Amino acid sequence: MSEHAPVAPDAVQTLLILGGTGDLASRLLLPGLASLLAAGRAEPLQLVGSGTEDWDDERWRAVVAGAFAGAEGDAVDAVLAGTRYARADVTDGAQLRALLDGCDGPVAVYFALPPTVTVRACEELRRTGAPGGLRLVLEKPFGTDLASARRLNALVADLVPEEHVHRVDHFLGMSTVLNTLGVRFANRIFEPLWSSAHVERVDVIFDEDLALEGRAGYYDAAGALVDMIQSHLLQVMALLGMDAPATLGERDLRDRKAELLRATRLAGEPVEASRRARYGAGRIGDRELPAYADEEGVDPERGTETLAEVVLAVDSWRWAGVPFRLRSGKGLGRNRQEAVVTFRPVPHVPTGLLGTPPPTRLRLSFSPDALALDLAVNSEGSPYDLEGAQLSTELGDPQLLPYGEVLAGVLSGDPTLSVRGDTVEECWRILEPVIAAWRAGEVPLEEYPAGSDGPAPRGGFPAV
Lowest CB count within 10 Å: 40, 305, 328, 351, which one? Predict the structure, then answer.
């Protein structure tokens, strides 16, 4: 989408990465920028890294070169040759303003920092004043609850207009998520059926065979509900469920997402409509994993979940009565990252056809990118027997990494793939009853062996 967006007259001249010495920058952000430059979708710009570490330009340039490895082109070479490092404590207003004044404007400030440091830096920026044309790029989580999200939105609104705020959800840059729009709105076979009249349920699943992987400092304070469902999976759900926008312009698309989220609520009491669990000791492939509670840096008394599941309802004409199940877990036996739309059974099967038709399901896989349709067909060699078959296709490899797609919007001034402030608040509002019930211990913390499929499915809502 952002490939065809008009470039704003105040397109970014400098990308300033605060927290440039951290893992996020080297592992995700810089490779994403490299893919964008190599694809010819961004002009050369000034790249400045900043942190509290005592680095020099040479060390920073080596980090950038490592992240750019494999990317080629004049734009890649130009950015690498001109990049520099500036040491600064961004919670000191004078140092932060001096850092910004040393950059060619307009500047996009990427906060690759812990959320509390980001808030303090924004408060200092409000005190000292923001330079013209500034863009703020914020990583999740956007607040820790509804009240803090509202405060953060009010803070950034004092600094820049909403269209200059880019709240990063790299899921919205994933090619399969973007392809959801094409599958839904460009195929006559699906769009007329995309409602409660024909759809029985919708599942959005992001299961990983990765465990904690040394991220206790962040993850043990967040857990699967906040890390994955509150941010990523609710955004995917919004794309799956929203009505058709008139255009893919940022206002039309994001208005439709906001409408869907405003109509969304928990489908019942938290004890019935949510689950939480954490992995115990187990084995995944050739790896022996300790129980989550025994992982280094974990406080077992927190009761942090590594698997979260919620069932949501959408109070709209299109979706009344259709459950949306969002689930994400770590330490599971296989990677399974897909959205599954299960259609209602046919009202009657002609007498003489044998067997119960398997459900008709549309599957959008996020990794690898693929599309599959599960159908009932006649069995080979026994034409009166019904069995399942699958039509599938692999989707083309994306030109850009997810962070490259997101950065394309940042640098061109197109906020289509960023999360708008009102939808951030809606996502927290939707999950407020779950968070409160979990903190009060009203929903038990289950356990599943690492390497398993997770807790056994509940009778009323089986697995797909």
Answer: 351
- The pTM of the full predicted model, rounded to 2 decimals, is 0.92
Name all domains of the chain by residue range, CATH numbers in brackets. Answer: 2-139 (3.40.50.720), 172-398+421-449 (3.30.360.10)
* CA–CA distance, 151 with 146 (Å, rounded to integer): 9
Identify which of 43, 38, 35 has the alpha carbon closest to the alpha carbon of residue 14: 43
Rounded Cα distance, 314 and 461, in Å: 17
> E-assigned strands of 140-218?
165-168, 199-207
* pLDDT surpassing 50 at residue 7: no
- 308/206 Cα distance (integer angstroms): 10
| Residues 63/24, Cβ–Cβ less than 8 Å | no
What does the alpha-carbon distance between residue 97 and residue 109 come to, in Å, rounded to a whole number? 12
The terminus-to-terminus CA distance of the chain in angstroms comes to: 31
Sign (positive/negative) of CA torsion 134, 140, 143, 146?
positive
The answer to whether 202 touches 241, Cβ cutoff 8 Å, is: yes
The mean of the pLDDT values for the chain is 91
Q: Count Cβ atoms below 10 Å from residue 59 Cβ, excluding itself.
A: 13
In the DSSP assignment, the letter for residue 229 is: I
Nearest-CA neighbor of 1 among 46, 41, 60? 41
CA distances to 102, 260, 421, 460 from 184, in Å: 46, 15, 25, 28
* pLDDT tens, position by position, 195-204: 999 999 999 9
* Residue whose entry in the numeric block shows the structure tokens 């942090």: 304
CB 151 within 8 A of CB 143: yes
Give the C-alpha separation, 21 to 17, whole Å.
9
* Whether the Cβ atoms of residue 308 and residue 336 lie closer than 8 Å to each other: no
Between CA 362 and CA 373 the distance in angstroms is 5
Q: For residues 61 and 98, is the Cβ–Cβ distance under 8 A?
A: no
**Residues noted as catalytic:** 232
Strand partners, 337: 206
- Give, in degrees to the nearest 5, the angle at Cα 138 between 111 and 428: 140
Q: Give the helix/strand (H/E) hosting 262.
A: helix 250-262
**Length of the chain, in residues:** 464
What are the pLDDT digits (tens) for 77-103? Answer: 999 999 999 999 999 999 999 999 999
Q: What does the pLDDT look like over 425-463, one tens digit per residue?
A: 999 999 999 999 999 999 999 999 999 999 988 766 667
Token reading at 259: 């409408």
